[in-house]
Q: What sequence folds into this?
């Protein structure tokens, strides 16, 4: 009898865990875009370079928090930006969520709330970091 009770409790907990990971409540006001990691906390969102905000979170398709470098290239995402135009929350969409996002009307909100129409990589990268187009080790004359 004790084994049966333990087995039923384990099945109930497993079913609850599966249900929690398969359902996500994404914000209705989140924007949809295509996101790719560039370098560090710099990402390319719909062709524009953006920064992941301090404390910003990226949630993978399984709803676990992931680092920017683990983001699959050209991921379809829902995202929110902070007052500086940096990404504050990102959700990588599952195939079902992507199909649902395709059915909703496109948003007219801009990618960034910053006054700049687009930011160059030099303006997005923190001071002192090498650009991906620049050599990382300075050359010295002989």
A:
């Amino acid at each position: 009898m004790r084994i049966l009770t333990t087995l039923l409790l384990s099945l109930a907990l497993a079913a609850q865990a599966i249900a929690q990971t398969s359902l996500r409540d994404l914000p209705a006001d989140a924007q949809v875009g295509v996101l790719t990691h560039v370098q560090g906390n710099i990402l390319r969102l719909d062709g524009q370079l953006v920064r992941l905000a301090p404390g910003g979170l990226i949630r993978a398709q399984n709803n676990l928090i992931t680092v920017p470098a683990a983001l699959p290239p050209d991921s379809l995402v829902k995202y929110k930006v902070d007052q500086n135009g940096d990404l504050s929350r990102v959700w990588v969409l599952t195939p079902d969520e992507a199909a649902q996002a395709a059915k909703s009307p496109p948003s007219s909100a801009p990618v960034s709330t910053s006054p700049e129409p687009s930011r160059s990589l030099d303006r997005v990268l923190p001071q002192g970091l090498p650009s991906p187009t620049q050599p990382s080790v300075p050359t010295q004359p002989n």
